Amino acid sequence: xxxxxxxxxxxxxxxxxxxxxxxxxxxxxxxxxxxxxxxxxxxxxxxxxxxxxxxxxxxxxxxxxxxxxxxxxxxxxxxxxxxxxxxxxxxxxxxxxxxxxxxxxxxxxxxxxxxxxxxxxxxxxxxxxxxxxxxxxxxxxxxxxxxxxxxxxxxxxxxxxxxxxxxxxxxxxxxxxxxxxxxxxxxxxxxxxxxxxxxxxxxxxxxxxxxxxxxxxxxxxxxxxxxxxxxxxxxxxxxxxxxxxxxxxxxxxxxxxxxxxxxxxxxxxxxxxxxxxxxxxxxxxxxxxxxxxxxxxxxxxxxxxxxxxxxxxxxxxxxxxxxxxxxxxxxxxxxxxxxxxxxxxxxxxxxxxxxxxxxxxxxxxxxxxxxxxxxxxxxxxxxxxxxxxxxxxxxxxxxxxxxxxxxxxxxxxxxxxxxxxxxxxxxxx
Length: 429
What we know:
Layout: H1 20-25, H2 30-38, H3 41-51, H4 63-68, E1 81-86, H5 95-102, H6 104-118, E2 122-127, H7 132-147, E3 163-168, H8 178-185, E4 209-213, H9 214-218, H10 220-226, H11 228-233, E5 242-248, E6 255-260, H12 265-272, E7 282-286, H13 306-311, E8 320-325, H14 330-344, H15 350-367, H16 374-385, H17 395-409, H18 411-420, H19 424-428
Helix pairs in contact: 2-6, 2-10, 3-6, 5-7, 14-15, 14-17, 15-16, 16-17
């Protein structure tokens, strides 16, 4: 039986996305017309809550629950804001790019629905600087949406108004952090903000603001059109809907696929990615991008949903897997990741900017054959010191996830580097 793919059914890579007329013929904007024509904002929020839609940006927070913290009613502060987080900078992740380039009107409709649910007055799409094709297509689609009165004042005579702007990111990893992103839109350095207050009550310019990921918002038209029960039925687990999974590394068919939430790592790797390339074996998987813990072969039958991956000791994150093969040095791979995170630290808190630099330098020494046995304990102590609650945001704790799990699953490789004073992979391969 063919599996439903509501998010990508009308996306054809290599071709232009549907313009607004084609999108409407495919059923596009029907959910929006229904919502603003016959549903109260609270009813939209209720439908999303009942669907169990979890945020697809990485944290997995319940979307409807997130909206429910926004002040509503006649006394609520205005303007309110909706921000689409399209700053897809997580290494190994490219799922939002597929949606942005292939279906800009789907995202715009989802953004308007979310904005209507929280009664936002202004919306921004915060786009990764390098996604230039997506920027061109979004710019055109936004103009079409205005021309067809899906944006602007008094949308389709509903009394509801919304202005939508495209904002291109300055191009740093920290800009994808929810509150760093808000500072960037305000024209400030993209440092994360202290919480509380949370953006739902004090976000952009101190006003109520909701930040949602691209994939999260693209689900909304389908939930409004088909209902919460239908959405839950798409999943293979208790977490509703489909998910755009991905795989990169030495697999036969790297790519991205929309599949039921809860698809196993084994099915993704063997059936959709085609298995490992000839001559290569699997050593580890970062299941949700660079800032997640390694899983190994014993975890192949783990379901790729938020709760199952967490029970296995990692995070679903973005759901786009980075595959490590048996020709790749684990120390070198983790070093590469730590250099990235150290470079992308905003420098706001000492444990992050100082700790990540120290970790990267220590790993570089081990990789160069200059490591000392006590370096391993020092690395483990940094994994603990940079854990959640010890830094201003999630950048450093995320960086520690591949390091901590590598020290657990690939300890022999670290010890061999130190004992033999060299990287064996460099000589062999």
